[in-house]
Design goal:
nine-stranded antiparallel sheet, alpha+beta, Jelly Rolls, about 500 residues, single chain, eight-stranded antiparallel sheet, 7 helices
């Protein structure tokens, strides 16, 4: 075996070993290979009638012909599918990552994933529904102006055991195009979290600070039994009791008065009605004057009134300088002001403090439970692990190689949609010919030279057909005059012969 062959085999072994080591560090990894149907359960009942399948990418570039993913097949249907996992996120960093490709865009619907809580509800996977409890919901969702990447976790109240959803207050927006995008969530043991799209951070925060309602209730609350005293004065100002209305204050003065300086326009048509019968209106064929009465055509605005104005002229109004409105006494500081009343604060009987919300409930399954108005949404390379670097390393081998071919394919499709006209194609072909065979690369110079060369043939044509035609035209006219003169002479001789006079008598 040659040294090159040994080196190649060694490299291949190292690559496979590295992939194996990465894969084995994930708690769950789903690349949707040929055995995917043995791991996933498709839900079919009266509510969930949408189909799922693993298939190649739609309009895939040649480089990705072998790439496949889980695809939701139908729009305007509920679709659900589930698979078993076994994840205990307590006291560990949690990493959730998967690919989403909106092959037909996304008008209204979800592409999020649910990490379902491990409990008796998962004993029968075929009972999976929107009511199945989940631990975390993560992923894109869009409908109308609502456009966000969900991060919701369900938190258990340690006092009474109730469960409450905690929603990220300012979620990032989704990537709404037709490319494959990578969504990554990492929650650290210190309660901090980060969200990445295409391996770029788009949001970070803390489970204790950035969710609504907050994880921990307030320590103190308003005393519900405390009532504001009836004599409590909480108005900082009051009307001045010593103020009196001025004697010249006219409360009845109107806001506007007629403008006495206004003059009726000279072209005002006072005798013209503001509305006239519609000249285009016609009495219906089935109208009976005896049964329906005299037919009166509908009226329209008088077109003569549009510019000049017509009808009875009314003097316009203007602001009344004497208007003051209702008199009110000025405000002064209230000597009896005590301050804003607030109820007493008492300890919150429902208070608890959970400083470790990152210790999520165990996860027993992954489920997609979706409704969407867009079909062909594709999911791929779902993983759950505990190391962000390993998740990104896996993405560099699976998601990253897709990005280049997909963008090139998108650019090709965009170019086809804006196909140039025949004149543009001829122009581009002409420049390509000049650049290839004549070596000219400056298109401005090419245009100038082409214009000059293009003017030479017309110039020769004008010169020879117009300017050079002058003498020829003159010769022709001279010959015509000579012929005409000869014809006149012959005619005269003929006349003289008829009169018996020879032409040479003179």
């Amino acid at each position: 075996m040659s040294s090159f062959s040994r080196l190649f085999l060694l490299s291949l072994c190292l690559l496979l070993l590295s992939l194996y080591s990465i894969a084995t560090n994930f708690v769950f990894l789903e690349p949707f290979d040929a055995q995917w149907e043995t791991r996933w359960t498709e839900i079919k009942n009266a509510k969930y009638q949408g189909d799922w399948s693993v298939e190649s990418h739609q309009n895939s570039p040649p480089e990705l012909k072998d790439e496949k993913g889980l695809v939701v097949q139908h729009l305007a249907r509920h679709s659900a599918i589930i698979t078993k996992v076994n994840v205990d996120p307590k006291e560990k960093d949690l990493v959730v990552q998967y690919e989403v490709k909106l092959q037909n865009g996304l008008e209204c619907g979800g592409a999020y994933m649910k990490l379902l809580t491990a409990d008796k509800n998962l004993e029968n996977l075929e009972k999976f529904s929107d009511a199945t409890p989940y631990t975390i919901m993560f992923g894109p969702d869009k409908c109308g102006f609502d456009n966000k990447v969900h991060f919701i976790f369900r938190h258990k109240n340690p006092l009474n055991g109730t469960i409450e959803e905690k929603h990220l207050t300012t979620p990032p927006s989704i990537s709404n195009d037709k490319l494959s995008h990578l969504y990554t969530l990492v929650v650290h043991k210190n309660n901090s979290f980060k969200i990445f799209i295409d391996m770029k951070q788009v949001r970070e925060g803390n489970l204790l600070e950035d969710f609504s309602p907050p994880v921990n209730p307030p320590k103190v609350i308003d005393d519900p039994t405390d009532i504001k005293p009836s004599d409590w004065i909480d108005d900082p100002q009051m009307p001045d009791p010593t103020a009196t209305k001025p004697s010249d204050w006219d409360e009845d003065a109107p806001l506007e008065i007629p403008d006495e300086e206004a003059v009726k326009p000279s072209d005002w048509l006072e005798d013209e009605p503001e509305e006239i019968p519609d000249p285009e209106a016609k009495k219906p064929d089935d109208w009976s004057d005896e049964e329906d009465g005299t037919w009166i055509p509908p009226t329209i605005e008088n077109p003569k009134c549009f510019e000049q104005g017509c009808g009875k002229w009314k003097r316009p109004t203007k602001a009344n300088p004497a208007y003051k409105g209702k008199w009110k006494p000025p405000m002064i500081d209230n000597p009896k002001y005590i301050g804003k009343w607030k109820p007493k604060q008492i300890p919150n009987p429902a208070f608890y403090e959970d400083l470790h919300p990152h210790n999520f409930s165990p996860i027993g399954a992954i489920g997609f439970e979706l409704w969407t108005m867009t079909d062909k949404i594709l999911f791929d390379n779902i993983l759950i692990g505990h190391d962000l670097a390993e998740a990104f390393e896996y993405a560099e081998k699976t998601w990253l190689p897709k990005t280049g071919p997909e963008k090139e394919q998108q650019e090709r499709e965009a170019a086809l949609n804006r196909q140039p006209g025949i004149w543009t194609q001829w122009t581009e072909e002409f420049f390509s010919f000049v650049e290839k065979y004549l070596g000219a690369t400056d298109r401005t110079i090419v245009v100038a030279v082409t214009a000059v060369l293009g003017l030479i043939p017309p110039a020769f044509f004008v010169y020879f057909c117009v300017f050079r035609s002058g003498p020829t035209k003159k010769v022709v006219e001279t010959k015509k005059n000579q012929n005409k003169k000869e014809e006149n002479t012959d005619s005269k001789q003929e006349v003289d012969k008829t009169q018996g006079k020879p032409t040479d008598d003179k």
